[in-house]
Amino acid sequence: MKIMHVISSLEVGGAQAVLYDLVLHFHKKGYTQIIVFFHDGPYRKRLESLSVATHHVRGMFAPIDPVSFFRLMQLVRTYRPDVVHTILWAANVLGRCVSRMFSIYCVASLHNNYDQNGVVRSAIDRMVSYRTTQIVAVSDEVKRSFTRLYASASVTVIPNGIDINRVREMADAQQKTREDLNLSSEHFIIGSVGRFHPIKQYPLLLKAFALVHKEYPHARLLLIGYGTQEHYLRECAHSLQITPYIRWIIGQQAYGYYRLLDCFVLASSKEGISIALLEAMSLGVFPVTAYHIAQHPVVDHGQNGSVAKSNNATDLARKIGSIAGGRSAREVRQKNAQRIVRERFAVSGMIAAYDRMFRAYSDVKVW
User: Fold this and answer.
1) What's the pLDDT at 117?
2) Residue 163 near residue 21, CB atoms below 8 Å
3) CA-to-CA distance for 71 and 79, rounded, in angstroms?
4) I need a surface site. Which of 213, 258, 332, 349 has the fewest CB within 10 A?
5) Which residues of the chain have pLDDT under 50?
């Protein structure tokens, strides 16, 4: 089987991590795979290490314009894939257009709530029919956000999964110490991993941490990531007078830091299924996440972590502070966190679901 994966960006993120796991496991199965991307990033080298062909498609003015469309069309004409698999908004739009032109079925993966696309993107998206596209949503909430506008669309939920054994191996190989960060065993370490981007709501986390630190002076915050908001976030930390209590880990993999954390926090109110969250939970780190509805797709409040109200720094701080006073309050939920990842979010289930879907549609002609 020949699969063309089209993704908007190869920067560090959950969608890219999912793509890497798919390509890795399908490579072992002997499938022919081609990667097409619009924005370059660190994942390109990781994918090329698997001896998979990669193609950087550039437009004349933007990633999605007539030039990029023509270049993607040429690649599809050259490779003639059995299935086109698209990931993230720009790839979903162009990939659907091109796959219809060549009568190839398209599988489009949605990693974020549809209403996060914005007015312009949503308008463009509606111009391209989903009639011959199988939609994959990474959670029930992502599916609901999509079907509010496309009630008749065929949507299958395939939760993101992680390779638990590989996460542990990487954590062991890259293990950091508290001394590396000038921290001691007395510190309560709160950590977060992700792009420094407005959608991740790091200013909210900084405000919550400032509240936590007032009550628990031994608390420290570890921020692992990079992005356009870094300078702004540093200014926010300075204005909140918490700069000395933050450790910034820029552009590094998170694996070696997870086991240092007493608590992993996700402040974004809307998220598909965070790979970083799954990785932290798989290593027994207590999760606290903000969410816009009571039912989080991964964290069951009071059972395997805590869920705070969205856009509410006080409630987020309260949830973090409730476990900062001692270890006994979180030990049972840490074990439950590991169990839920093992049972529901292992990479094997995700790979098997995509494999069945690609096989089912590889011989389907849409005209």
Assistant:
1) 73
2) yes
3) 13
4) 332
5) 366-367
Query: What is the average pLDDT score of the chain?
Result: 90
Residue-level pLDDT at 363: 63
* 80-103: b (≥16 Cβ within 10 Å) or e: ebbbbbbbbbbbbbbbbbbbbeee
| Span 154-169, pLDDT tens digits | 899 999 999 999 999 9
Residue given tokens 């509606």 in the structure block: 126
- pLDDT, tens only, 60-69: 887 778 899 9
Enumerate the β-bridge partners of residue 264: 191, 287
Yes or no: say if 139 and 297 are a contact pair by the CB < 8 Å rule. Answer: yes
| Structural element, H or E, at residue 276 | helix 275-282
Question: Token digits for 162?
Answer: 């992680």
Place of tokens 């890795």: 24
| Residue 216 near residue 324 (C-beta atoms within 8 A) | yes
Cβ pair 36, 75 in contact under 8 A = yes
Whether 199 and 116 have beta carbons less than 8 Å apart is answered as yes
Residue 281 pLDDT: 95
CATH 3.40.50.2000 residue ranges of the chain are 2-161+346-361, 164-344
Which DSSP state fits 285? Answer: P
Kindly report the CA angle at 305 between 300 and 307, in degrees rounded to 5?
70
Which residue matches tokens 């001394």?
179
Please report which residue ranges of the chain form alpha helices under DSSP H. Answer: 14-28, 43-48, 66-79, 89-101, 118-126, 140-147, 164-173, 202-215, 230-239, 255-258, 275-282, 313-324, 331-344, 347-361
Q: Count CA within 13 A, CB hemisphere, residue 250.
A: 11
Closest CA to 13 of 299, 171, 225: 225
Question: Which pLDDT does position 332 carry in this prediction?
Answer: 73
Q: What is the pTM assigned to this prediction? A: 0.89
Residue 274: φ, ψ to 5° = -70, 125
If you classify domain 2-161+346-361 with CATH, what class do you get?
A: alpha beta
Of 11, 12, 8, 10, which Cα lies nearest the Cα of 64? 8
Q: What phi, psi does 239 have (nearest 5°)?
A: -65, -30
Between CA 80 and CA 34 the distance in angstroms is: 10
HSE toward the beta carbon, residue 225, CA cutoff 13 A:
25
